[in-house]
Amino acid sequence: MRKFFPVSDLARDERFNQVTNEERMADPRGSGNTGVIRKARSTNRLTPSRPDATDAARNLMHGIMVGEIQALEGAGRTCFDFVTGEEAPFALKLDMARQCWDEARHVEISVKLSEWMGTELGQFVENTVLFAAACSQDPVMRLAGVNRALEGLAIDVFTTMKEFGEIAGDPYLAFCEDWMLADEVTHVKMGSDWLRKITENDPERRKKALEFQTVVDKLFSYGGLRSESDESPILLARRFRELAGFTDSEITEIADVSLAALNERREALERTLAPSPA
Amino acid sequence: MTVTVEPSIFSIVNYDANEIAEVANEMLKLLGMGSKNLTIEVDETVAMSRVIATAGDPIVVHVLSSAFENLKSPLSFSADNARLSLGRGLLRVRDRQSGNFDDAPLDDALSIVESAVWETYCVGRLVKLGLKVHKQRWHYNFRNRHGFNDATDRQFEQIWNADNLDWSQLMEISRNCAT
User: Fold this and answer.
1) Is A30's Cβ below 8 Å from some Cβ in B?
2) What are phi and psi of B16, to 5 degrees?
3) Which residue range is the domain that position B128 belongs to?
């Protein structure tokens, strides 16, 4: 069986249309944080009080669903791509196998939630950035990019969706997101623990992995999708990140990176909206 | 009947003003509004799907770009989504012109609950006219605004299947969702 599977070869049926993160970020449009929409609401946070809340939640739920598929594919590759004992400890692979089991269950839950919310599978575009972070040839990089950055984003997203379900009174959404959130905290904790253990005597390798995580965190901030600002739909979930093994300074660093991404997006949007010189 | 699309040339999204006008003409005829003049203003700087319609001559429908977008292929046009978005806006105008919706707030002043009720009424009628619609999407939107319970589901079905309600009846059904 082939090792180190490229993102371009992910198998999907005809319902799905994939784009890279570069293609997605090339879309210069705003998502309501400008002009008349910005004036009409004081926050962009994804809550039921937003006029577009239902469609925005459906879109995010679809993103979660394809993200779970890619997380399953990524964890599965990590079980197989590396030589046991030499490149990756057996216990690490066992954790990745357990994560595959969780992700497969999350895919099924996300499919059912999408149907419940009135979304057809493949209705929205699939961004392949999540699996792209799982293509490194170093298992430590994958732990940093996938378990800590990707699953860290999942903690933020699930916390936001869980609160959305609670406020709207949607019993299924709130319940399912809460259970998946518990799994994600475990996945991040596994990544944090393994990253520290494997790089215990290799500070350079740890430094590179954490730098990679910063890059991926910025990508996953999607130009302001997630931060501690009200302008971002998804709130950085500090408490659950602490439970997952992030230190205060690490969380603050992610908050800073996310805010920088939001500011970059805001400036780009202002340039787009600026009147052309006559 | 004149249909005008602004802008005539798009610079951010890959839409064609003539194609939008064609869909608009089709919807005006389908809704029995073929004699009306219509101006469609597309704000291509915002990726949302809001539709605000104003009765008058011409009727003005202001849409944010995602209202006409193929969400599977961002920035590209979807005739099906354009039909649905224009249909919802034009039906609200037709309702207002009937005299039975004189108490309804203007589109941009509708509360999220009022908007959900009227959208349900409009989309239900568009289904009867043959448009392709995923009913569960609108059911979920209605539940988000009225609660997740059996009473809400019954009222949703009543509105979805109706075709001769006025504004006060719609609001009465909406209030009944809480009981």
Assistant:
1) yes
2) -115, 120
3) 107-178
| Residue A226, H or E segment | strand A226-227
Q: B45 touching A, CB under 8 A?
A: yes
**Does residue B121 sit within a domain?**
yes
B13 & B65 share domain: yes
Residue B102 counted as domain residue: no
Residue B63 lies in a domain: yes
B143 at A interface, C-beta within 8 A: yes
**Domain range list for chain A:** 15-21+44-262
CA angle, residues A86, A91, A94, in degrees to nearest 5: 115
* Structure confidence by residue, pLDDT tens digits, B2-13: 999 999 999 999
The CB-based long-range contact list for B163-169 (8 Å cut-off, 24+ gap) reads B163/B124, B163/B125, B163/B128, B165/B121, B166/B100, B166/B101, B167/B95, B167/B100, B167/B101, B167/B102, B167/B103, B167/B104, B168/B103
Number of CB pairs < 8 Å for A and B? 90
Superfamily per CATH, domain A15-21+44-262: Ribonucleotide Reductase, subunit A (1.10.620.20)
| B70 lies in the same domain as B29 | yes
What predicted TM-score, i.e. pTM, was given to this entire model? 0.91
Number of domains in chain B: 2
Interface test with B, best of A29, A46, A114, A271 (most B CBs within 10 A): A29
The answer to whether A58 contacts B137, with C-beta atoms less than 8 Å apart, is yes
Chain B interface disruption, residue of A54, A114, A117, A166, most B CBs within 10 A = A54
How far A122 CA sits from the closest chain B CA (Å)? 7
A274 vs A190: which has the higher pLDDT: A190
Domain presence at residue B96: no
Q: Which residue of B has its CA nearest to A118?
A: B137
Residue B19 shares a structural domain with residue B76: yes
Encode pLDDT of B101-158 as tens digits. 999 999 999 999 999 999 999 999 999 999 999 999 999 999 999 999 999 999 999 9
